[in-house]
Amino acid sequence: VDPHVPPLEDVKEEAKLLADELAKSTAFEEKATALREKLVEGGLINFDETAKKLALPVRVPAPFSVYEASPEDMEDFASIAPSVLSLEKGSISDPVPTQTGMAIIAVKDRQPGDLALAESLKPDVARTIQSTRMAPHFATWAEHLLAEARSEAEPTDAEPDAL
Questions:
Q1: How far apart are CA 39 and CA 80, in angstroms?
Q2: 95 with 36: CB under 8 angstroms?
Q3: For residues 21, 27, 29 and 33, what is the CA-based torsion angle, rounded to 10 degrees?
């Protein structure tokens, strides 16, 4: 089908559903941001009390290390862990999207991890970074080889057809 703008009647229901979904999502994000501001006003010392006054559930995970933590041990670990990495002791995060909604993370304490474990993981992390960086180069190289092979396979005007 050639590109065209469909008549409003053909897309009216879908457009309404998408607009409603966007409005709900935006309103939810705005409410989460407003709740975060109230939590920040209450401060880290009163975080739990402020959260309870706002009728927000508070979950306190066991102390964990990003090197040793298991995603199965903590709900929404994949969403929360990257946010925790950038927070300092005493910080309250911006709302973090999770599978079930949003989380606002307060870091009450932060201790240095096991240096020996971190050192032992360096080679694996370095290999992962290197392979991640090399993937686009490999794809570009492969595309170049394919283009080169195609150009060599196509007969030129100087070459007679083999038929």
A1: 18
A2: yes
A3: 180
Within 10 A of 109 (CB to CB), how many other CB atoms are there? Answer: 7
pLDDT digits (tens, 9 = 90+) for 56-69: 998 888 777 766 66
Three-state DSSP class for 96?
A: strand
Q: How far apart are CA 89 and CA 108, in angstroms?
A: 6
Q: Check residue 101 and give left, alpha or beta (phi > 0: left; psi -120 to 50: alpha).
A: left
CA distance 53 to 46: 11
**Alpha helices, DSSP H, located in the chain:** 8-42, 47-53, 77-85, 115-153
Contact 51, 36 (CB under 8 A): no
pTM over 0.70: no
Could you read off the pLDDT of 71-89 as tens digits, one per residue? 677 788 888 888 888 888 8
Listed in sequence order, the residues at least 6 apart from 7 whose beta carbon sits closer than 8 Å to its beta carbon are none
